[in-house]
Structure formats: C-alpha cells, structure tokens
Amino acid sequence: MSSDIVRVPQSAQPTALAGKRILLGVSGSIAAYKAADICSQLAKLEADVHVVLTPRAARFVGVPTFAALTRNPVLVDLFDEPQSRRIVHVDLAQSAHLVLVAPASANLIARLAHGIADDMLTTCLIATPRGTPLLIAPAMNTIMWEHPATVANVQLLRTRGVRVVEPAEGLLACQEVGVGKLAEVETIVQAVVDQLTRTREFDGDEFVITAGATREPLDPVRFLTNRSSGRMGVAIAAEALRRGATVTLITGHMSVPPPTGVDWIQVETAEEMLGAALEHAQRFAVFIGAAAVADFAPERIATAKIKKPVDVKNDEAGPVLRLRRTQDILATVGAMKRPAQLIVGFAAETEDLIANARRKLQSKHADLIVANDVTQAGAGFDVETNIVTMVGSDFERSLPLLSKREVASRILDEIAEMRTGRLNTIREESSQ
Ligand code: PMT
C-alpha cells in the first residue's frame, strides 16, 4: 500500500446536523477568525447556525462573514434586538438545541461563571435553559489559562454541566508556546456532532479505557517509552460517550487532548496505570486497553542523571541497563472480571497477527482483541487511521483502512452485541 495517499473517511455524515439549531457565540480573541471556519463546517453539516458576537469579537471578524455563512441575522449589541414582540435573546437561547462558545476568552468564561449578562452574548447565555448542552472552547495565553481565577471559573462551569473542549498546546498569538490554543476546528465540530447525535445504547454503563504511552524513568531526565499518540483510545472514548456511556479515561503520555466529557486520569508509568485501573476494576461494564503499556521497566531508577565519564572514548561500551517485567494490566483486570464485565484488549503486532491475537485473548482473559499490524502504512501508532482485525473466541472480523473514529465505532458495535448477548445469558441462567 502507498504510504503517501491515506484517505481519512469523515466520521460525521453530511447531514448529521440537519434540523439542529445551534447558537454560536464568539468572544474577543485573536482565534475569533477560526469561528468562521467552525460556522462554515456546522452549516455544511446542515445545522441552522445563529451567531452572536461580543463587541470585541466583532472587531476581530466582521458580521457580514457570519451572516453570509449562516444566512441568518448576526447579533452583537443588546440594543440590536429588532422591534418585534419577540425578545430575541430569550428566543435564540430557548430555541437552540446546543450552544457553543468558540473561542471563549478568559473574560467571557469569568462572566459566564458569575452570571454577568452585560452584552448580547452573555445575556443569551444566561437565558439558556439548563437542559440545553453548552460547550465552550477556550482560547487564551497560557498564563491566563492557568490563572487561579480562570481555573476556578472553568471548574465552576464544569460542575454546572458546561462541557469544555480542551485548548491545545502550541504556538500562541503572543509567540509563546504553551496550552491555550483554540482546539482544532475539526475537534470542536466533532464535539458538537457527538453531543447532538448521542444515542442511549450504553446509557449508564461505565467504560474504563486506557490510552497513550507509559513512560518508565531511567533517571530524573530520561525514560523508556513508545510511539503511541493516544488517538485510538481517545477515539474509542469519544464514541463511547456519544453512545451514552460514562467514561473514565486513564492515559499515559498523549499528543491529543482527551474528549470533552470524560473523567480523565493522567499517569506516567505502567505501575501507576495498573493502580488507576484497579481502582475502577469493580465498577466497569467494559474495560478497553488501547494504551501501549511498557512490558519492561528499568530495574533501578538512578536518583541523579546518569553521566558519561568525562574521558569516555567514542568506541567504549555504554552502561548496561537491566530491565524488569511490568505487571500486565489487562491480564490482572481480566483475571478479576465478573461474568457481566467485558474486557477488550489491543494487540500491536509486527508478525503473526491473528495467532498472536488469539494467544493474547486467552492469556489476558479478554472477550475481544483488536489486532493491528503496526508495520502496515496507515495502521497503528501515531497516525489518524488504522487497519484492524477483531478477534473473538469464535470469530475474526477484518476491517479496511478507516479513520480511528470509524474503527472505534465498529469496535463499539461489536461490544454492544457482545454485551447484549452476555446480559441475556446471565438473565436466562438466573431465571432457571
Ligand atoms: O495511540 P495511537 O498512536 O493511536 O496508536 C494506537 C495503538 C497502536 C497504540 C493501539 O491501536 C494499540 O495497539 N494499543 C496496544 C499496544 C500494545 O501495547 O499492544 P501489546 O500487544 O503490547 O499489548 C496487548 C494488550 O495488553 C494491550 O491491550 C495493552 O494495553 C495491554 N497491556 C500490555 C502490557 C502491559 N503491561 N499491560 C497491559 O495491559
């Protein structure tokens, strides 16, 4: 297969948002120009988008841009309300299926948290009924994002059910590198689609999902790790959330943010990941191990940086590292599982894909192994796509090259079927 042309199928259907009315709020941030792209993408998915700008946002992007993209009036000033019997801000807020504020500045977040309604956007926000999903996508300088006031305001909003599309790390407008960059447009649009196309298939079911790469320290500055980006696990978490599950996502190092709405536990080492998994081992309905967990860790962690001797010759052998086996998380959790609980593992293989997957299915007490041949272009580590074969005790199902989100969807279809079958069997057995 050619490695330079990889088609990533869109996971959102072209009409995914047909009939959905979205109130898009834009606040004053240099990232406001990206709101036009978000608006355009939502409109392409057939959403009926109504835009409200803060006066400062209107200085970054013009009203006509949003009016042309949405074919709806764009509001800025509270006194812009047309002279009619309807109260526009109440009408807009109450008729929206979802409210999105992107970008959400530190100031907007503070005003929203404290119920200040001093312009058209914040007045719409305070008039939004409690059951309407409210998503905010923050964008600001790192110091502002990490300021205790912002941290407290975001926390307060989360406790009220506001969903935060986490800002990304990168080069900010102030030329500093840090966290605070508006999440990718695709991530924000996907969060909206997920929220508005939720199903109840896994309603009330608790999923525990591991993702990303563990890091095993050698000394205070070095560690052993692998190339997992966390994309596969994050895609599964997002899809499980969309289908109504409660998701605990345990991650090592990742290069993508977690999806909006998960309970996120961050760890470093295999041992810490095992500890976090065991804390949730009693409660889960489905455990999915998508993380690339270190099989070996240094036997000894040096307390000071391992130095090379000053007079070392280039051809002289370096230090020898002794490694110890880590405990297998999936096998440990699998050995404890109750009949209604399902265990799903991955197998990252470079040879004998199916035979190795079958071996792992048994040794890890798993119900399903998702095997990926990580030598194939477009599969495995740190790419947007994957090629997998699902291996169960009595079946094998191979999928073509798909986006990781689409792979996640197929895995969850399989899990839904297995879970229904399992619960029916338990019910039948207990009624005999
Ligand atoms: O994160 P991405 O960049 O999107 O890449 C995705 C992926 C390639 C990491 C993912 O698709 C994948 O294959 N994850 C499992 C990687 C791996 O560690 O495979 P394994 O064959 O070594 O392990 C088998 C299973 O046991 C896995 O479910 C793993 O999470 C689990 N395991 C392994 C070792 C260990 N100590 N504890 C474990 O639980």
Topology of helices and strands:
Blueprint: E1 21-26, H1 32-44, E2 48-53, H2 57-60, H3 63-70, H4 88-95, E3 98-104, H5 106-113, H6 120-126, E4 134-138, H7 142-146, H8 148-159, E5 163-164, E6 168-171, E7 177-181, H9 185-196, E8 206-211, E9 216-219, E10 222-224, H10 231-242, E11 246-251, E12 263-266, H11 270-279, E13 286-289, E14 296-298, E15 323-325, H12 329-336, E16 342-349, H13 353-363, E17 368-373, E18 385-386, E19 388-392, E20 395-398, E21 402-403, H14 404-431
The structure holds ligand PMT.
Radius of gyration: 24 Å
Fraction of residues in H or I helices? 25-40%
The whole-number mean of residue pLDDT values reads 93
Distance between the termini: 53 Å
Bound molecules: ligand PMT
Instruction: Write out the strand line-up for the largest beta sheet, numbering strands in chain order.
Output: 12-11-8-13-16-17-19-20
Q: What's the total number of strands?
A: 21
Biggest sheet details: 8 strands, mixed
| Percentage beta strand | 15-25%
Shape: globular
Low-confidence stretches: 1-10
- List the quaternary state of the chains: single chain
Structural class: alpha/beta
Count of separate DSSP helical elements: 14
